Amino acid sequence: MKKTTKICCIGAGYVGGPTMSVIANQCPEIQVTVVDINQDRINQWNDEDLDKLPVYEPGLKEIIASNRNKNLFFSTEVDKAIEEADIIFISVNTPTKTYGKGKGQAADLKFIELCARNIAKVAKTDKIVVEKSTLPVRTAGAIKSILENTGNGVNFEILSNPEFLAEGTAVDDLLNADRVLIGGDDTPTGQKAKDTLSAIYEHWLPKDRILQTNVWSSELSKLVANAFLAQRVSSINSISALCERTDANVAEVARAIGYDSRIGSKFLNSSVGFGGSCFQKDILNLVYIASSFGLQEVADYWEQVIIMNDYQKRRFAENIISTLYNTVSGKKIVFYGWAFKKDTNDTRESAAIYVADALLEERAEIIVYDPKVSEKTIYADMDYLNTRTPEENRRLLKVVKDPIKATEEAHAIAILTEWDEFKTYDWDKIYNNMLKPAFVFDGRRLLDSETMTAKGFEFYKIGQS
Ligand code: NAD
Ligand code: UDX
């Protein structure tokens, strides 16, 4: 087997950046180049100040510090990187389509197609092309067709190697992956390509955690894994609503069922609803694929996971409104957290955006504090909804850097992200700062009900009456 000396990754985002940094760290003899068409993003990856990296992940800046410009490079020279690499990972975004056929459900593959055409144009030697992005099942067929019909007569092997890292724990997930999945053709050259890619991961993972399948199983497994995970969150969230009406406690129910080893204890934390760039997009994609094969019952089954999630976000906002005496007009509500989960600066599909939108519709005044999300991102998230003008968003919603001062004269606090630091705040001081009754709505089940009630708060926690 030819030794891999150079790899490149197209797309320097939340997956491309951390994944390639870990590969560079674990494989010092391989030169890793991460390329992107977004010059700003590449500048941020190359910034001397490691607090300015575009992706916040615990442990990432240390890895970048020890490998950058040794065997890890970030660049906008896409063609050069493609030309030199033995293996090319495609890790560009595959968002839900916002136009045309499949609008609102299907994955938009225009960036993937652009990459394939670019590889076809530039490649002068045989390449292994790896789908790292999450793609609808059978996309490898389309990539192959583009490469073979516009290529320079070189051989391309297409592999599917979906990424299972979760944001906030990306480095640890990569270093201690439950499994790595590699799908490819069952031909001799396909097998050789799968083994070549496997050899990279074998630098740090035991061989029995590297699964090889055909390319279609691999593509489909990624969508299915996310659908199953999101389904667990929607399942427990559906029960949280029932708990609130029956004096049952969702944490106790989750613990009781999670002890059954067939069910398991993970991913049963009731919340204000799942967010992130993957779950909703990938389930919608699965729904679209099922319905395009005429499997309507299958499509409806998975769509319910999303419907339940929308219900959970709406329910949280409606509870705030009804508890604050059916009006939040002119009332100051402080949001603790904007990211879709803790330990990330990513806000894509964050529940906070939708809760804020619902409260702003009722003319609430919102003050947001998040330790890692910038003001620019928060306003961009609100403006993207197009519910109101950018000027109105800036008038009604303010972003602050001091979480305690923010609570002065506030009517309520809503916890939208489970950042650990919220647990350490001086809640007595916060209580004194606030108007009375001082309401706290805990959408993450972060704080202890008895302690908060004893301090004087009117405390509401998802999944508990
Ligand atoms: P992202 O938006 O953070 O990054 C994608 C990058 O690709 C962007 O910087 C963009 O500029 C770049 N890009 C787009 N077209 C390009 C082109 N033609 N040439 C060069 N660069 C180009 O996206 P992400 O979160 O890293 O996700 C990437 C893929 O990985 C998606 O398919 C996603 O579903 C999948 N995935 C994401 C996660 C996650 O937690 N974010 C986890 C597993 C899988
Ligand atoms: C997910 C998958 O976990 C990962 O394997 C895949 O590669 C990408 O998509 P990510 O979206 O980064 O990862 O984070 P994840 O930890 O899965 O959380 C997704 C959302 O579900 C977050 O908003 C989180 O707060 C929420 N969640 C998760 C819950 O509400 N309860 C839980 O028990 C778990």
UniProtKB/TrEMBL annotation:
In this chain the UDP-glucose/GDP-mannose dehydrogenase C-terminal domain maps to 334-449
Tell me which domain of life the UniProt entry assigns to the organism this sequence originates from: Bacteria
Its annotated pathway reads:
Nucleotide-sugar biosynthesis; UDP-alpha-D-glucuronate biosynthesis; UDP-alpha-D-glucuronate from UDP-alpha-D-glucose: step 1/1
Name of a matching Pfam family? UDPG_MGDP_dh_N
Q: What class of enzyme is it?
A: oxidoreductase
Keywords assigned by UniProt, alphabetized: NAD, Oxidoreductase
Q: Which reaction does it catalyse?
A: UDP-alpha-D-glucose + 2 NAD(+) + H2O = UDP-alpha-D-glucuronate + 2 NADH + 3 H(+)
The UniProt record lists the EC number as 1.1.1.22
What's this protein's family per the entry?
A: Belongs to the UDP-glucose/GDP-mannose dehydrogenase family.
Listed name of the protein: UDP-glucose 6-dehydrogenase
Name the species this protein comes from: Sediminicola luteus
